[in-house]
Amino acid sequence: MAKPIVAVVGRPNVGKSTFFNRIAGKRISIVEDQPGVTRDRIYTEAEWLNIPFTMIDTGGIEPDTKDIILSQMRKQAEIAIETADVIVFMVDGKEGLTAADQDVANMLRKTKKPVLLVANKVDTKDLPDTFYDFYQLGLGEPMAISSANGLGLGDLLDEIVARFPKQQEDIYEEDTIKVAVIGKPNVGKSSIINTILGEERVIVSDIAGTTRDAIDTPFTHGEDKYVFIDTAGIRRKSRINENIEKYSVIRSLTAIERADVCLLVIDASEGVTEQDTKIAGYAHEQGKATIIVVNKWDIIEKDTRTMNRYIKDIRDRLAFMLYAPILFVSAKTKQRIHQILEMVKFVSNQHAMRVQTGMLNDVIGEATLLNQPPSDKGKRLKIYYATQTAVRPPKFIIFINDRELAHFSYTRYLENKIREAFGFEGTPIWIEYREKG
Ligand code: GDP
Ligand code: GDP
Fold first, then answer.
1. Which of 7, 72, 111, 390 is within CB 3.0–4.6 Å of 80 for a Cys-Cys bond?
2. Residue with the nearest Cα to atom 19 of ligand 1?
3. Where along the chain is GTP 2 bound (predicted)?
4. What's the CATH code of the domain at 377?
5. How far is Cα 258 from Cα 216, in angstroms, rounded to an integer?
6. pLDDT digit string (tens) for 94-138?
7. Residue 172: inside a domain, yes or no?
8. Ligand 1 pocket test target in 11, 13, 42, 156 with most atoms within 8 Å of CB
9. How far is ligand 2, taken at its centre, from the CA of residue 276, in Å?
10. Nearest Cα to Cα of residue 392 among 307, 290, 299
């Protein structure tokens, strides 16, 4: 399930960080950060009534004009509108309404996303006279809270959670392959999606009866059913500037959570960047199948070794996902675009593959004969039995005598042997040990 995203927007000093820290339950604020250190903790995981969600901290946005406060607030609002599912607009209940509040409210009124107007610093039960001015913002009834004293937070969280989008998951049939197209802005995600959707045998499905903005794009290709997850933000051309770029990663993360297969799009003219590595790492940790798609191949000057150089570089930088196939494509010239769906179908099958216990144990048995399990202080690792317990991703449990002896390198060796025998191309595989007396 994808976690809904909540963003808090408001003037400096209204209490956003205080609120953020309260909800997050951990201290992760500006206070902790040393000057000059780039803030990277732009989001945190939170939970209310057993519903997990992600909170974005837009506090670290650098203003870029002289009117610092206003430009900063506009950017926060922009990020919130682009990225969040629910926006909390925080004003200062002590200070009352200001012109800057009006300005941001004007922006927020244009979004279709739910906006909750919250007056912070109402530390007592009595509402200040200025409270009623906030109705002028045209964002409905203000809620009074005190982040410092913890007043009204429960009610606010109830309201936030009530506005989370309905999960679309259930409407797709079991055999629909869920695909997330992930990567930084401008690598060509939307171009790739549009090119695939424009292919001859691809038919985009109607989703009847969806009231809110459809965020997914379901389609069929021949007999096969697919859905591109969370395409709303990708296909709509956003005017996001580079300052905001990192926030788009959060959207990728939630798309990854819902997907079976990730298309990690990399710009050939840039190669693998640090941000690509982060996104790829998340897909890997989440146990998703991944295909690395190197786009804009048309603009690269090539000789006979160019492709191999790219492959080597990708394998070096994304060494934790050697299983991921690499495709070199161009959304512009459509070169090899038609191979993407074939590959998606293939890795999706690999991701869901289940091997027979007998065959698995034959492979493990042979592997241990070929390369003896490690020993330590006279005690040798004994492998009794292995079985696959899950798919998507494939998960194996290996029963052994002593977990201490199961070193990483031997696990990797076993993983390689399993891959040699069965494939599992494009998918991580999870290996877990159980001790058996
Ligand atoms: P931000 O700039 O919007 O992130 O605001 P901060 O969270 O840094 O808070 C600004 C100031 O307001 C700090 O001195 C906080 O202690 C104070 N503050 C935050 N919430 C409350 C509140 O509910 N009541 C009162 N009285 N002060 C608060
Ligand atoms: P997104 O932000 O990742 O969705 O990227 P877009 O699909 O909007 O593409 C960003 C820019 O790259 C646009 O100007 C596209 O025209 C361009 N672009 C996308 N794919 C290709 C490609 O294969 N080759 C070239 N030369 N340009 C491309």
1. 7
2. 15
3. 183-190, 230-234, 295-298
4. 3.30.300.20
5. 11
6. 999 998 899 889 889 988 899 999 999 999 888 898 999 999 999
7. no
8. 13
9. 16
10. 290
Q: Are 345 and 361 members of one domain? A: no
The rounded Å distance from CA 188 to ligand 2 centre is: 4
Whose structure tokens read 């003896």?
A: 372
Phi, psi for 401 (deg, rounded to 5)? -85, -35
138 is in an annotated binding site: no
* DSSP for residue 98: -
* Alpha helices (runs of H) in 305-404, residue ranges in sequence order: 306-317, 338-351, 357-370
Predicted local distance difference test score (pLDDT) of residue 61: 52
- The set of protein residues with a Cβ atom below 6 angstroms from ligand 1 is 10, 12-18, 59, 120-121, 123, 146-148
170 band by pLDDT with thresholds 50, 70 and 90: low
Report whether 133 belongs to an annotated binding site.
no
ipTM: 0.69
Q: How many domains does the chain have?
A: 3
Atom of ligand 2 nearest to the CA of 235: 4
- Element containing residue 376 per DSSP (H, E): strand 375-376
For the chain, the average pLDDT equals 86
Question: Which tokens hold the place of 268?
Answer: 């050939």
Q: Is the pLDDT of residue 353 over 80?
A: yes
Which ligand 2 atom minimizes the distance to the CA of 183?
3
Residue 226 belongs to domain spanning = 177-352
Q: Whose CA is nearest to atom 27 of ligand 2?
A: 296
- CA geometry: angle at 235 spanning 63 and 10, to 5°? 30
- For 434, the token pair is 């159980």
Per residue in 367-396, pLDDT tens?
999 999 999 888 999 999 999 999 999 999
